[in-house]
Amino acid sequence: MNERIRSLPRPRWRSPLRGPWLTSVFGSVLLVGLSIVVLTGLLSYIAYGPQLGQAIPSPVRGLGLPTFDWPTRPSWLYRLTQGLHVGMGLALVPVVAAKLWSVIPRLFARPPVRSVAEAIERVSLVLLVGGVLFEIATGILNIQYDYIFGFSFYTAHYFGAWVFIAGFVAHVAIKLPRMITALRSRSLWAVLRTSRADTEPEPADADGLVATDPAEPTMSRRGALALVGGGVLFVVVLSAGQTLGGFTRRAALLLPRGGGEGHDANDFQINRTAAAARIATADVDDSWTLSLLGGPAAVRLGRGELLAMPQHVARLPIACVEGWSTVQTWTGVRLSDLARHAGVEQPLSAVVTSLERDGAFNRALLQANQVLDSDALLALRVNGADLSLDHGYPARIIVPAMPGVHNTKWVSSIEFRKV
User: For residues 81, 84, 89 and 90, what is the CA-based torsion angle, rounded to 10 degrees?
Assistant: First the structure.
């Protein structure tokens, strides 16, 4: 008889750490962290100018966002929101993995559905888990390998976000009361004082997270929390420098455009080179002119004429959707001065066109406040030196708090609009 009992297969999920309390701890961290990621992600789409038809896919039917003129102040606004979005998203990867580990018995429960309520919960899990894994995968790939997708990253990430949001909201509505109850079931301080030898399984639960035949613990719950927390800290150390800058930038080893700042005037991050944009030498030689459109007649200015105009100096960041940012000192002509020179005193928008031949962002639309901001420039120099070709020579746009990709390089024309 004893031989028969020993020969029976044991359950696959035998960790004594699993249970409602540990799952709820990870869930509470994700509830706060993922809410920040979602909010800052949606703000990023608004910053791209949905009212101007930029970045957000069309049509989106009922999934459209409220539109407003993205502010230019403070100048580090997009640096903050997108840095939080990418940084928090990366930092939460270990927590997402830990949460999935903690509920794996539930994911593989048999039968998978035993009631209508469980069916609803299962659907929310499919949306939640599928959505978060898709967003993490595409987000990390976009950070590591710029423009590699055979589809629009912005469109896919946008709709993927709404799939995740639907699952996230439904799951929170279903699980929040249980999570609160589980968190109250034991003291965090008591858990942190419990050694591995004294670690015991939680009481049996209705969701089947607690093992029916638990193995001996290989670590305490304190150790599990330290392991996940250490993973979060490790990711933060290797990624936060891309946004924070300074001495922390050298630690941004996981992000190809996070570091890379040197001592030369033009020695800072480049997202898209002139070669990748197919900028030919003949495009930017002495024959280059800037066309100012929208006024009574087109105005064309060479680089020498632009340098002869009143120059303005501004120290402004470039912050990109990949989460990296850099702050440099730019010199050039105010866009508002160029608008007046074109004969448009109060433009309501502007269309900036680049010499770039390949790429989705060879045109950018600027809002009125972005054109008229006192620090919005057609930059000709950076850190006291002429722009390098990779940084947009002979002229590029730099506007406070605007997504980096809209700070158009290799500008060929600006059309100031009255509508």
Answer: 130
- The mean pLDDT value for 3-22 works out to 72
User: Residue 225 — φ and ψ, nearest 5°?
Assistant: -65, -40
Q: How far is CA 18 from the centre of its chain?
A: 31
By CB atoms closer than 10 A (0-12, 13-18, 19+), residue 130 is middle
Domains of the chain: 9-237 (no CATH), 281-417 (3.90.420.10)
Residue 322 amino acid letter:
E
Q: Tokens 């006291």 — which residue?
A: 384
Mean pLDDT calculated for residue range 47-72:
75
Question: Using CA atoms, how far apart are residues 262 and 250, in angstroms rounded to an integer?
Answer: 11
The residue among 383, 378, 382 whose CA lies nearest residue 350 is 378
Structure tokens given for 395: 């002229």
Is the CB of residue 400 less than 8 Å from the CB of residue 376? yes
DSSP secondary structure string for all residues of 231-284: HHHHHHHTTTHHHH-GGGGGG-TT-TTT----SSTT-S--SS-TTTTT--GGGG
Q: pLDDT digit string (tens) for 260-289?
A: 777 899 999 998 899 989 998 899 999 999
Taking the model in full, what pTM does it have? 0.90
Distance of alpha carbon 141 from alpha carbon 387, whole angstroms = 29
Question: Residue 164: is it exposed, middle or buried by C-beta count within 10 angstroms (0-12/13-18/19+)?
Answer: buried
